[in-house]
Amino acid sequence: MRTRESITAVIKAYDVRGVVGVDIDADFIRETGAAFARLMHSEGETTVAVGHDMRDTSPELSRAFAEGVTSQGLDVVLLGLTSTDELYFASGTLECAGAMFTASHNPAEYNGIKLCRKGARPVGQDSGLATIIDDLEAGIPAFEGATGTITEKDLLQAYSDYLNELVDLKGIRPLKVAVDAANGMGGFTVPEVFKGLPLEIAPLYFELDGSFPNHEANPLEPANLVDLQKFTVETGSDIGLAFDGDADRCFVVDEKGQPVSPSAICAIVAQRYLQKLPGSTIIHNLITSKAVPEVIAENGGKAVRTRVGHSFIKAKMAETGAAFGGEHSAHYYFTEFFNADSGILAAMHVLAALGTQDKPLSEMMAEYNRYYASGELNSRLANAEAQKERTEAVLAAFADRTESVDTLDGVTVELKGTPAWFNVRASNTEPLLRLNVEGTSEQEVAELVEEILGVIRA
Q: Listed GO molecular functions (predicted)?
């Protein structure tokens, strides 16, 4: 029997994640597969698609999970090597539940599982993970029916064909594209998806290697973009793309090697959707730039603001029938992709926009870069009580300069006499207080950051 504490240490708000051999092992994953199968069986499901990334431990753990699933009478389709968005494609097109073995951008010693229902619908703490935790704590009862079957299926070509139907790049002007796969799954999917298109790919770190020998597979950290920035300029590329480990996120740099903010990507993809589907609803989380709802409104769309996190975005996509959704962390969600996120699909939209006009990327994106942002700044605090106390202290410090406050996710403060705003919110998974600031100048943002962090870290 496992303790609840040991289980909740690895089953987080949105997924399962931990250090292999310390937090998780094959036996735990086998039991988790059985618990997930029980949950899916209770909802009338019969099949689970299982994919895995390039980490050394992923094949063994995915096979153990499959054994757990079949022990409860459900069938398994093993996909082998996949990106996370390819797993979502499988869940959507095969109309079955899914499990992706990856720890995304985490270091090599980590692994985990991203779970979804049929149609790539999310499984989170409030939508199934709590039930799985209860089952693991109580112990999985023996199943009295027949054991399920395991079959294998390769969907890479079908996934590539599907994406190319969604965004037609055949008629764009020729582009040179630098791609940093960070030794992750982008090195597996990009060559297939971009094959035969007017794109000259300059590959960087395409070798699949779960030890990440060149840099962490987390392009959200500026240090991990440095190689791509240099490589893009050296190769004379029109654009640079950086994928995280499981390739569900994509970051962009321009021809000068300068990062393009995920908010700007949200804005340009939203604009493309509104040209195709006038009046559509577009989702954005509350950390994206003010430029995003501005562009949506200017193009006749309806902007809907949500909390941070894929489960909230996906739920709101389904509720509103939104065409597209974007987050500041470079997760982009598409109605034609089962409301799921895909890094490469977002990249294809940017390539389509770039390749159907003559400006370089830096000029094309200039109209979407209207404000200055701090990026996400984290402060480690002792506990939830300390997080609450520091948040209240920040509100008190800005009380006489506050235009409005909302509490959709943490606190978002709009300031008087300026478009500047900031958000302070607690992490879902760590004892961190996260700060995001946006303003009209670098100086304004720097001064606000200094003042707010001075209160948080006092």
A: intramolecular phosphotransferase activity; metal ion binding
Same fold, 4-155 and 177-256: yes
Mean pLDDT of 100-115: 95
CATH number for the domain whose boundaries are 177-256: 3.40.120.10
Q: What is this structure's pTM?
A: 0.94
174 touches 207 (CB < 8 A)? no
| Alpha-carbon gap, residue 114 to 87, rounded angstroms | 10
Print the SS3 string covering the chain: CCCHHHHHCCECCCCEEEEECCCECHHHHHHHHHHHHHHHHHCCCCEEEEEECCCCCHHHHHHHHHHHHHCCCCEEEEEEECCHHHHHHHHHHCCCEEEEECCCCCCCCEEEEEEEEHHHEECCHHHCHHHHHHHHHHCCCCCCCCCCCEEECCCHHHHHHHHHHHCCCCCCCCEEEEEECCCCCHHHHHHHHCCCCCEEEEEECCCCCCCCCCCCCCCCCHHHHHHHHHHHHHCCCCEEEEECCCCCCEEEECCCCCEECHHHHHHHHHHHHHHHCCCCEEEEECCCCCHHHHHHHHCCCEEEEECCCHHHHHHHHHHHCCCEEECCCCCEEEHHHCCEECHHHHHHHHHHHHHCCCCCHHHHCHHHCCCEECCCEEEECCCHHHHHHHHHHHHHHCHHHEEEEECCCCEEEEECCCCCEEEEEECCCCCEEEEEEEECCHHHHHHHHHHHHHHHCC
Q: What's the mean pLDDT when you consider all of the chain?
A: 96
Task: For 116-135, write each residue's pLDDT tens digit.
Answer: 999 999 898 888 999 999 99
Residues of the chain with pLDDT > 70: what percent? 100
Beta bridge partners of 180: 204, 242
Q: What kind of fold does domain 4-155 have according to CATH?
A: Alpha-D-Glucose-1,6-Bisphosphate; Chain A, domain 3 (3.40.120)
Quick one: fold of 262-368? Answer: Alpha-D-Glucose-1,6-Bisphosphate; Chain A, domain 3 (3.40.120)
Mean pLDDT score, 106-115 = 95
Domain 372-456 - what CATH class?
alpha beta
**pLDDT of 247 above 90:** yes
Q: What is the model's pLDDT at position 429?
A: 66
Q: Is the pLDDT of residue 354 over 90?
A: yes
The pLDDT assigned to 285 comes to 95
**Domain range annotation of the chain:** 4-155, 177-256, 262-368, 372-456
Tokens (6 digits) for 9: 């240490």
Tens digits of per-residue pLDDT, 190-213? 999 999 999 999 999 999 999 999
